[in-house]
Design a protein that fits this description.
471 residues; alpha/beta; Rossmann fold; seven-stranded parallel sheet; globular; Lip-like_C; AB_hydrolase_fold; hydrolase activity; Lipase-like C-terminal domain-containing protein
């Protein structure tokens, strides 16, 4: 009984902290829009009378995106740098003028920041990312759509943001958190020629930089509510259940101005009251239909088991450059792993840093992979385990090299995961630039400089069949 009460207390604290942070981000975006609109026109221009406080800066940007009239359509070279957000993230056109990457995109004039589903599965986001760049109507795949119960086609990009994308005009990807796995799945789809009407190959990707990347899953998913026994089911009472209910109600209400401002990305599941009515809402809440019933959402992909399943199909390609920044906010104290500081960890993450230090896989559950040890997964950044962020390592370890000094990896060799471990929590380098201070500029300047000066092909791409060896 005492344990149950303690669990409810922890759930209440976690839910409150996450809700407050979400409201903070949302209100910051609204305040910034109001300020920009006031400065530009001297008055507030409301999109609709029914939505007081929200100006049409965000709505106009979103309408441009929906029409395919993207603010930036790149052509030719140098290769663009594409910043891919993580879970609960957003791209250009969402949350008004707020930047997920805290303005890092302004460091180069050929940077794209796509807006993908914030809670949709890795597969669905990878498909969206392809059409965002190349153009056309998002095709989630006939078989996948049937299996998971959603419409096959999504939004249409009349003009892609980089329509010339091919082997001769490749791109650099920089992914944060789950965004890295999105890029890796897309990369494999390119190699497998999985997009009808497009002759793709793995050489469409010049480099991939992982920033706190979810390469091998995270034990945090189990604290949030995923069952460690299978990595796909949810506990009946947990933070993710509250999230599930909130998302379902949000999408069912389908308030246009609100979804223009922020969208979880489940439009292809058609959960709006206009489509399913009240009975449909009941089915969704009871878990009979929708993405949470079918498992086609991002959390199952972020468990260790889900990541192992993804990784078993993903390769490291010999013509692509890889670099990874693994973050940690823990240290050893008398042989015990503990949070490295109090003030240096975001309030939303401190409890999870502490919990993840103490994670022990249930004794009655099968180990997620051969050779698993709890102690390997203790170091973390509040969202991901440090061991998960260095390079793909389960079910097989990909070629990798630890970097202590950047000069150690020059010249860069393709096909190797260079990785560096840095002191930071999971959100130090996104949303709020001031938190990271000078570290922010050092990190992103290093990433952009590597893309521009050190990651390039000295010879023509090799034949795809010869270059796509399994690692």
């Amino acid at each position: 009984m005492a344990r149950f009460i303690l669990s409810l207390l922890e759930l209440g604290v976690s839910a409150t902290v996450h809700l407050l942070f979400g409201l903070y981000v949302f209100s910051t975006a609204v305040a910034a829009d109001i300020s920009q609109a006031a400065a530009a026109s001297g008055c507030l221009l409301l999109r609709r009378p029914a939505a007081p406080g929200l100006v049409n800066v965000a709505a106009a940007g979103e309408e441009e995106e929906r029409r395919g009239a993207a603010p930036v359509v790149l052509d030719g070279s140098p290769p663009p740098i594409v910043l891919v957000h993580g879970i609960f993230g957003f791209g250009k056109g969402r949350l008004g003028g707020l930047s997920y990457f805290a303005g890092a995109e302004k460091k180069d004039d050929r940077v794209l920041v796509p807006d993908l589903g914030s809670l949709t599965s890795i597969h669905d986001r990878a498909r969206e990312l392809f059409y965002y760049l190349k153009g056309g109507q998002v095709d989630y795949g006939e078989e996948h759509s049937k299996v998971f119960g959603h419409t096959r086609f999504g939004r249409t990009y009349d003009t892609g943001h980089y329509p010339v994308w091919d082997e001769q005009n490749p791109v650099h990807f920089v992914g944060h958190s789950a965004g890295v796995q999105v890029v890796r799945v897309l990369h494999q789809m390119l190699a497998d020629k999985a997009f009808p009407g497009h002759d793709t190959s793995e050489d469409w990707v010049l480099s991939l930089t992982s920033l706190s990347g979810a390469l091998n899953g995270t034990t945090r998913t189990y604290y949030d509510g995923m069952l460690a026994e299978d990595g796909r089911s949810m506990k009946s009472i947990c933070l993710l259940q509250l999230c599930r209910i909130g998302v379902i109600v949000y999408d069912w209400l389908d308030i246009p101005w609100l979804k223009n401002y922020y969208n979880f990305g489940f439009d292809h599941f058609e959960m709006s009251w206009r489509k399913v009515g009240l009975s449909g809402l009941i089915d969704l809440l009871l878990g009979h239909t929708g993405p949470f019933a079918s498992g086609d959402w991002i959390l199952p992909d972020l468990t260790i088991q889900g990541s192992l399943k993804l990784n078993s199909t993903l390769r490291t390609f010999p013509n692509t450059f890889y670099f990874s920044y693994a973050t940690k906010r823990t240290r050893k104290l008398f042989g015990i792993t503990v949070p490295s500081s109090v003030l240096g960890i975001h309030p939303m993450l401190f409890l999870r840093v502490l919990q993840m230090c103490m994670w022990r896989h249930p004794q009655n559950a099968p180990l997620p992979y051969k050779g698993y040890r709890d102690e390997d997964w203790e170091d973390n950044d509040g969202a991901l385990n440090t061991i998960s962020m260095t390079h793909p390592r389960i079910p097989t370890e990909h070629p990798n090299r630890l970097v202590v000094d950047d000069s150690d990896c020059h010249p860069l060799q393709p096909g190797i995961w260079y990785y560096k471990i840095i002191e930071a929590d999971h959100i130090l380098f996104i949303v709020n630039r001031e938190r990271a201070g000078v570290q922010f500029d050092l990190l992103y300047d290093g990433i952009f400089q590597r893309c521009r000066k050190h990651a390039f092909r000295r010879s023509p791409p090799t034949v795809p069949n010869e270059s796509s060896q399994s690692q």
